[in-house]
From TrEMBL:
GO terms for cellular component: dolichol-phosphate-mannose synthase complex; endoplasmic reticulum membrane. PANTHER family: DOLICHOL-PHOSPHATE MANNOSYLTRANSFERASE SUBUNIT 3. Keywords: Endoplasmic reticulum, Membrane, Transmembrane, Transmembrane helix. This is Dolichol-phosphate mannosyltransferase subunit 3.
Length: 89
């Protein structure tokens, strides 16, 4: 519930700033109408950047990979005992 309050507060603040910019002549009106679009595009760029950073820092877990391979071997053996064809190794 706290996150929704933070998000709504941020959206209200951004909307208030945008409406105030529309009311005043600080920025030309044609540019002010495009500010929500700029905001959405910059938010998308930020999201893509964060995904890229997360992928670059993705941890490798060699121990977990070995455990996973052992689980796969155990599952194949179990299925073979039950008469299921699991393919060749």
């Amino acid at each position: 519930m706290k996150h929704i309050v933070k998000i709504m507060t941020l959206l209200v603040a951004i909307t208030a700033v945008w409406i105030s910019l529309l009311q005043t002549a600080v920025i030309p009106r044609s540019h002010t109408w495009l500010l929500p679009l700029y905001f959405i595009v910059s938010l998308g760029c930020y999201g893509l950047f964060m995904v890229g950073v997360g992928l670059m820092q993705f941890p490798t877990c060699p121990q977990e990979a070995i455990l996973l391979q052992q689980d796969v071997i155990e599952a194949k053996e179990f299925l073979k005992q039950k008469g299921v064809d699991v393919g060749s190794d």
